[in-house]
Amino acid sequence: MKPFSTLVLFQILYAAVSAEVQDGQTGVVIMLPPQPTDTGLKQIPDADHPFIAPGPDDQRGRDMPCVSSRPINITILTMTIAAMNTLANHGYIPRNGIVSFEEAILGTMEGLNMDISIVGPLAANALLMRGNPFINKFSIGGMSPLVPPLPGKIDGPEVGGIAKHGRFEGDASMTRSDAFIGDNRDFQDILYDMDLLQLGKFGDNGPDGNNTVFNVATMIGVMQHNTIMYQATDPEFTFSASRVTGASGAAAFLLDVFANGTTKQSTLPIIGSFLRNQTFPTNWFRAGTPVTGAVLGPHVAAIEAALPFSPGRNNAQGVYVADPLPPAPFNSSLGCRSYWEQAANTPAVLQNTTGIFKQNVDFLLQMQFTAVQGNPACDKQLLPFGPAGV
Ligand SMILES: *[C@@H]1O[C@H](CO)[C@@H](O)[C@H](O)[C@H]1NC(C)=O
Ligand SMILES: *[C@@H]1O[C@H](CO)[C@@H](O)[C@H](O)[C@H]1NC(C)=O
Ligand SMILES: *[C@@H]1O[C@H](CO)[C@@H](O)[C@H](O)[C@H]1NC(C)=O
Ligand SMILES: *[C@@H]1O[C@H](CO)[C@@H](O)[C@H](O)[C@H]1NC(C)=O
Ligand SMILES: *[C@@H]1O[C@H](CO)[C@@H](O)[C@H](O)[C@H]1NC(C)=O
Ligand SMILES: *[C@@H]1O[C@H](CO)[C@@H](O)[C@H](O)[C@H]1NC(C)=O
Questions:
Q1: 366 CA distance to ligand 1 centroid (A)?
Q2: By alpha-carbon position, which residue is closest to atom 7 of ligand 6?
Q3: What's the pLDDT band for 86 if we cut at 50, 70, 90?
Q4: Is the pLDDT of residue 18 over 70?
Q5: 134: CA distance to ligand 6 center in Å?
Q6: Phi-psi region of 255 (alpha: psi -120 to 50; beta: other; left: phi over 0)
Q7: Ligand 6 in contact with 172 (CB < 6 A)?
Q8: How far away, in angstroms, is 201 Cα from ligand 5 center?
Q9: Which of 323, 325, 331 for a ligand 5 pocket mutation test, highest count of atoms within 8 Å of Cβ?
Q10: Where does the Heme haloperoxidase family profile domain start and stop, copy by copy (predicted)?
């Protein structure tokens, strides 16, 4: 018997003995999916995953966070909206945009060759902050009837989906306006055009012409320009530690995950295809080896080091003020600060769950903690202590 069918059988048996209903919902036990055996270079999409534009009820959204793996000192990476939307548009994750922990991991590993150490914590964050971890579902876009409020409505009357502002969707995105200024879900041509000005200045030469290949200097230019612009124009500009790591992670993601696996180049047409059209580029290959924290780390570190602001936010007078440091050991690194912020933005009521609900919450919290331990001093696990219903 193949390992996968053994797992399915196990899940069926387990579900049969463990059916647990809370507030009319049936709990689903979250498990680590089996690891793929084929993790090499591969053309994506394959014939089974054609592009189909989303229908009116299909959920699509914006930037998504994740936690890095052990070897690097960053915590939260914001994976761009484009990745999840593209995976959904090709059916690597469910086309309706409502996904389970296992579906998010398997689809991202297959379509983008991202390592489980990156995508596991990413999916854990999405479920804990903006999903329903009891039934093991979250929306990659907005609210959906397929993701009911948590049992007992302990986190308010609705589950927002990862596009909902506040808990982790942050300011200073490459292609979305800050929520205060305008539309933070739909692609902003004018912002992308400004990013392309940086490409024209700093980009490498490539098959499509000079200055058409995204590189670290381009991403630094984009981040510097965007943060300075938002700080000046958005009175509520917030650039906390987790948003610094998230935005820098998204920028590195563009270089390391969207690059053509055969050339390792993120060219203008490739990035245009992912960001504008949310479809895999024609004749595109995923990375030749799984993208781990060790791959993303150097790019993230270079971008973070070049940012014009340390973590902070605008005060009532529009003056940028650095955030206070969290208590030790969470003051020990940017990654550990991000971990602390993450717990501060995850509802504390999740601590008060029972049965499969608690089992799933504990599993996801452990996954986050394992990821942050790449920062050696960050050795204390946090339980969520954030407000509910926000
Ligand atoms: C991570 O941070 C520690 C100190 O906190 C440092 O010793 C180590 O070299 C850093 N690792 C990387 C990959 O930057
Ligand atoms: C592109 O850059 C190369 C090397 O700097 C230069 O020789 C070439 O003239 C440039 N091509 C165009 C079309 O500007
Ligand atoms: C986006 O899709 C349109 C319509 O299919 C196509 O004309 C355009 O070239 C695509 N753009 C990119 C950057 O792939
Ligand atoms: C990726 O690289 C291969 C090999 O150089 C090339 O044939 C293919 O056209 C490239 N794909 C894209 C989308 O640039
Ligand atoms: C973190 O806080 C502790 C306790 O206040 C302090 O001793 C330590 O120096 C701080 N560490 C950093 C990196 O600021
Ligand atoms: C957990 O439940 C107990 C008992 O109802 C309550 O006193 C406590 O405030 C709750 N804690 C949280 C974090 O909701």
A1: 22
A2: 352
A3: very high
A4: no
A5: 18
A6: alpha
A7: no
A8: 40
A9: 331
A10: 47-298
Q: Which H or E run includes 362?
A: helix 355-372
Question: From CA 267, how far away is CA 263, in angstroms rounded?
Answer: 10
Domain range summary for the chain, segments of one domain joined by +: 3-147+158-372
Residue with tokens 């189909």: 52
CATH class of 3-147+158-372: mainly alpha
Cβ-proximal residues to 302 (8 Å cutoff; 6+ apart), any chain = 216, 220
Coil, strand, or helix at residue 308? Answer: coil
Tokens 């599993």 belong to which residue? Answer: 363
Nearest to residue 324, comparing CAs of 339, 312, 336?
A: 312
Q: Find out whether the beta carbon of 284 lies less than 6 Å from any atom of ligand 4.
A: yes
Instruction: State how far the Cα of 339 lies from the Cα of 365, in Å rounded to an integer.
Output: 11
End-to-end CA separation in angstroms for the chain: 47
Structure tokens given for 374: 């790449």
- Pick the ligand that lies closest to the CA of residue 326: 5
Query: Widest CA span of the chain, in angstroms?
Result: 66
The DSSP element (H or E) to which 98 belongs, if any, is strand 98-99
User: Rounded to an integer, what distance in angstroms lies between the CA atom of residue 351 and that of residue 383?
Assistant: 7
Give residue-wise pLDDT tens across range 247-265: 888 888 899 999 999 999 9
- Ligand 1 first shell, C-beta below 6 A: 72-73, 297, 333, 375-377
CA of 59 to the centre of ligand 5 (A): 43
Distance CA 271, CA 269 (A): 6
